[in-house]
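Tutorial, part two.
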Amino acid sequence: DPEWTNIGHMCRGTFDTCKMDDELKVGVPQEHKSCWRYSYRYELEIGVAMVQVIEYYYAGQEAGNSKEEKKVDRHVAGNGQSIETEMANLVGRKVFRCFQPVNEGRRFEFDASTIDDTARVIEKWYEEDPENLEEKCNLRWKHVLGS
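Running the prediction step on this input gives:
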């Protein structure tokens, strides 16, 4: 489907919005058969929160499936990620956005410490304020060179 990451496409992974055959939009999604939006919504519905990685792109570099033209280095959420965020809000799940670590214009991969940081933030939210779904939680790291 050429419209699979078009935010204007009506499908939000529900029985009513998905245009696939009925047997492909009930119960556990069927791998390589069910719509990605149905599969994603299913995971949101059985989960507690959504963790979303926002990658850092250099100017002129193609940024996933985002149609935005990149004139400067920056973090970019792909078009599908916008749909995922909307579906998380519809299902009532907290969104934790993890921005790829950057220092002095150089990007770094996530490592054990950034993953541990994310887990601690989610655990704290779940223990102290799991009803707070209103605000997105943006997690950013500055990679310390030499560490």
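The chain has a mean pLDDT of 86. In part three we will examine how such features are distributed along the chain.
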